[in-house]
Design a protein that fits this description.
By secondary structure, the chain is an alpha/beta fold. The protein has one domain: Vaccinia Virus protein VP39 (Rossmann fold, 3-Layer(aba) Sandwich). It has 7 helices and 9 strands. The strands form 2 sheets. The chain has a 7-stranded mixed β-sheet, with helices on both faces. A two-stranded antiparallel sheet has the order 1-2. Helix 1 packs across helix 2.
């Protein structure tokens, strides 16, 4: 078991790394949590790319639809400590958003690094500029936007085309396949997750064209 997976299990429970974790009803719809084992495998792979190398500013990462904050937690705990990063999340369900923020506070109490990374999650709609203002973010400054393909990914691409920056990338973490977004991903990696989370997952990164459009 990886050190990151062990830490995530401590936060969320060992049963949360199962493949095909059940859908859960929320205040506003349905939430499908990503297995912890998938996050524990994906974050180190992301850290090996040029995308998250140290730069002249804090890496701005957004989880669009943050759920219970498990991706943000995995980024805070799993990215290289030398990397200055600011993981943030927007979640429309009030109960999930509140629980996610409490989890981040627990991490910050245990690890000062979490505080220095200013990880935060707010309740809101990731298509609403007001949610970004509450995070102190301008969408054009985003480096990486994560999303689970639940039918909103095409709309999210259009939104990023209008509001994101030339350096913004859309990261899709999905089971079994790349989403059909009209263009090939900039890069992709397939992950075979064994054990209780046995499944094939894909981490794919989509980038705007040289003109800045998606």
């Amino acid at each position: 078991m990886s050190d990151l997976l062990e830490r995530l299990r401590d936060l969320y429970g060992a049963g949360q790394d199962q493949a095909g974790s059940e859908f859960r009803l929320t205040e506003r719809g349905i939430w499908h949590p990503t297995p912890l084992a998938v996050l524990a495998a994906a974050v180190p792979l992301l850290a090996e790319t040029d995308l998250v190398k140290p730069r002249d500013h804090a890496l701005q990462i957004l989880d669009a639809g943050a759920g219970d904050g498990r991706l943000i937690a995995a980024l805070v705990l799993g990215l290289p400590e030398a990397l200055e990063a600011r993981p943030s999340g927007i979640e429309s369900d009030a109960t999930l958003a509140a629980g996610a923020q409490q989890t981040l506070e627990r991490i910050a109490a245990m690890r000062p690094l979490a505080t220095s990374r200013a990880a935060q999650i707010v309740e809101g709609d990731f298509f609403d500029a007001h949610a970004y203002a509450r995070l102190g973010l301008d969408p054009s400054d985003l480096d990486v936007v994560f999303n689970y393909p639940d039918g909103n990914e095409r709309r999210l691409l259009q939104w990023l085309s209008a509001h994101g920056g030339a350096k913004t990338r859309l990261a899709i973490l999905s089971p079994d396949h790349d989403p059909a977004l009209g263009s090939a991903p900039e890069w992709r990696v397939s992950m075979r997750i064994g054990g209780g989370a046995s499944a094939d997952w894909t981490l794919a990164m989509f980038a705007p064209s040289p003109s800045g459009r998606w």
